[in-house]
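Cross-posted from the bioinformatics board.
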Amino acid sequence: MNAEIIAVGSELLLGQIANTNAQFLSQQLAMLGINVYFHTVVGDNAGRLEQAVKTAQTRANLIIFTGGLGPTKDDLTKETIARLLDRRLMIDEEALRAIEAYFARTNRPMTENNKKQALVLEGSTVLKNEHGMAPGMALVAEGITYMLLPGPPKEMRPMFTKYGSVFLRRTFSLSERIESRVLRFFGIGESALETAIADLIDAQSNPTIAPLAGDGEVTLRLTAKHQDEAEAKRLLDEVEAAILARVGRYCYGYNDETLFMKTLERLKEKGWTIASAESLTGGLFLEQLTAVPGASQVVQGGVVCYTNGVKEQVLGVPRPLLEAEGAVSEPCARLLAENVRAMCDADIGISFTGVAGPDPLEGHPPGTVYIGIAVRGRNATVHRLTLSGTRDAIRIRTAKYGCFFLLEMLAADC
Amino acid sequence: MNAEIIAVGSELLLGQIANTNAQFLSQQLAMLGINVYFHTVVGDNAGRLEQAVKTAQTRANLIIFTGGLGPTKDDLTKETIARLLDRRLMIDEEALRAIEAYFARTNRPMTENNKKQALVLEGSTVLKNEHGMAPGMALVAEGITYMLLPGPPKEMRPMFTKYGSVFLRRTFSLSERIESRVLRFFGIGESALETAIADLIDAQSNPTIAPLAGDGEVTLRLTAKHQDEAEAKRLLDEVEAAILARVGRYCYGYNDETLFMKTLERLKEKGWTIASAESLTGGLFLEQLTAVPGASQVVQGGVVCYTNGVKEQVLGVPRPLLEAEGAVSEPCARLLAENVRAMCDADIGISFTGVAGPDPLEGHPPGTVYIGIAVRGRNATVHRLTLSGTRDAIRIRTAKYGCFFLLEMLAADC
C-alpha cells in the first residue's frame, strides 16, 4: 500500500504558503504504517489537475487531496475527480444545513456560491468539517482510495485525525501497530541532549529515536512497530525510561503538550492561582496560558507594564528604585512579582523584565532577562537569563522559561 | 516557459520537515516571470526519482532539483540525472579544493565519500556553494534546462539568488518584469469580497487577481507582466483603484503588513498612546502589538482581567454592575476601556470582554464579544460582535477586530 498527497492551489506554486498540509498528512500516514512515495502540488487549473491525478493513479493506491473544495470558481478538485471517475456531485443535506447555520449564526447573508461547498461525490463517505464549511469525502473506485480534504490547516487537521484516519484504518484493515510517542524537553540544547544519549540513538532499531529542535525546545520521537499494541507500548516504555534516567530533569511532557498546558495543569492540581507582570513579553505569557481551555480556574489576570510609568503607578515600583537599579534588574523583577501577586490576590505572582531587542536598553544587550516568582507567604526568587536570537525568539523563550521555573518550583514543592 | 520543482528526500515524505525550498524557489521564479506548474517530492530512491524526472520532462522545460547532492549513499540526484541524460560525472577541481579546505579548517579528517560531493555533470555550469560543501550545477539538454541545488536551505537560498537566477536570466534572456502586490482585507469574508469584484476577476488577464483567505483575513494578489517596470506598476495601480473603489473600506494594508503594524503606525503618526484591558483575549492584543519593534513609543501597558475579581479590584468595575449586567456586557466593556485608559494614563483605552469558549459564559454562546474604545476627553464607544470558530480563532479575530475598529476611528478622525 502506498500513498500520494496532491495539494491543489496556485498560492502554493506562487510560494505564498508552504505545503505544511503534506507534512502533517505524511506524519499521520507514517503513524498508520502507510508509505508515502510522492507529494505533488498543482495549481487551480482543471487540465493540469487532471494530469496530476492520472499520474498518481499509475503509482499510488491511496490519493489524498488537500484544497480546492471552497466556494469559488477556482475550487476545482471535486469537479475534476467527478469527471475522471464519472461520478455525479450531489448536495449533502447535513453539510448544507451546517453552512446555512454558519451564515445565520454570524448574521451574514449566504451567497449562492456557498451552496457549492455542500456538493459531494456520489457514493462517497462524507467527512464532517467541524471547523469550517466545506465537508471532506472519501471513496474507493477501481482499487484506488481517494480522500478529499479542505485546504485550510485548521479545518483539514482535525477532519483527518477525527474522521479521515478512521476511514483509512477500516478500509485498509490496518493491523500492525505503529506506536509513537514524543518526549518534550526544555532548558537543554539539541546537541547536549544528543550527546547525552548518543549510544541509545546509535543502538536504535525498534523503537527508533528521532530528535528535532525548534522554538527553543527539543523533542525526541520514539516509534515502535509491533503486531501487538501492548508490546509496542512496552518497547516505548523501556527506551523512555533509559532516556529519562539521564535527562529526565529537562523533560516536561509528551506529544502535543506545551509548557503552558503543563504549568496550568500543575497549578490546578495544587489549587493555586497565578498573576503576571509582563514588561518585555508584553502579555505573551498570560496569552499563552489563557489559550488553554480551563485557564479561568488558575489565571487571575495580570498587568502588562511596558513603560516605567505603568511599573510605577500601577504596580507600585518606586521611582527611586527604577532610577537607581533600572527596570531591567533583580530588585525590579522581585517587586513586580510581589506586587502583582498582591494586587490580583493570587497565590503566585510572576514577572518578566528585560530586553527583547533589537536595541539595547539601560545599557543591557538584547536577551538580558529577569524572571521573578513570588509565592504567597514566602520570599520571592529571581532568575537571571542571557538569551540569544531575534526579538520574537527572546520573547517566547522568556515566557517558556517562566513555565520551566514554575514547574521546577512546583515539583520541588510536592 | 514553465518550471517544475522536484525536492528529493525521504525526510519530506515522512513529514519531518516541510518543503520550504519549493516555496522559496516558487517566489523567486515568480519574480523572474517563470511559471511554476508543479512541485513534486520524491524519496531517496533511484527508481522513483527516475520516474519523477521522466514525468517532469513531459510537462516542463525547466526542472529544478533540491536535495540529494550530499556525500552519503542516499544522495542520488546527480547519479540519476547522469544516467537519464547519458552524461558522465566528473570531479570539479575547484569544488574539491573547497571541500578539502573545509576539512582542514575544521580540523577534521576528510573521509573518502566526501570527494563524491565534488562530482558534477559533464558540460554543466557549476554553481558555487558558499555555505556548504556540495556545489550546484545547471545544464541544458534537448531543450530542457536542469538545475541541481543542495537541500539545506542555508546553502540553497544564497546559491540560487547569487548564481542560479543569473544562469536563468541569461539562458532564458529574461527581460519581462513581473510586478506583484498583495492587498490585505479584514472585516469582509472571502466570498463576499469575491462577489463584490466578480466582474474584475472574470475580466482579469494582466494583471491577474488571486484571492486567498486565512486567519480571518482575505488577501488579493495582483500580478502584472510588462517589459517596462513603470508600465507594470501603472497596470497594478489601475486595478487596485478599481478594487478599492468598491471594497476599500476593508483594505488595511499591503504585502506583509499586519493589522497590528498598521495600528501601531497610525497611533505613532497621531502621537497617541494606548492601554488595553483584556478578558477573553488574555493579553493577546497587547502581545501582538508589542511584537512589533518600536512599540514602546505607543504602548503604555494594560491589564489582563481574566476574573471578575481583577475587573473589580484592579479596574474598578463595581460589583453591582458585574452582578446585574454581567462581565460580558456593553457597560462592562465601556468601563474597562475608560478605566484602563485613565489608570495607565494613555490617550486610548481599549477593552475586550466576551466568550472564547468552548463553554458558554453568563448564558452567552462562544463568540459573543464586546470591544470598548475610550479616547481621552470623549465618550467611549462599544462594538458588539458575534464570531464563530474555535477558541483560538475567536481570540485572534477579536484582537484583530480591535485593530480594525481603531483604524476606522483613526481614519475618521483625520
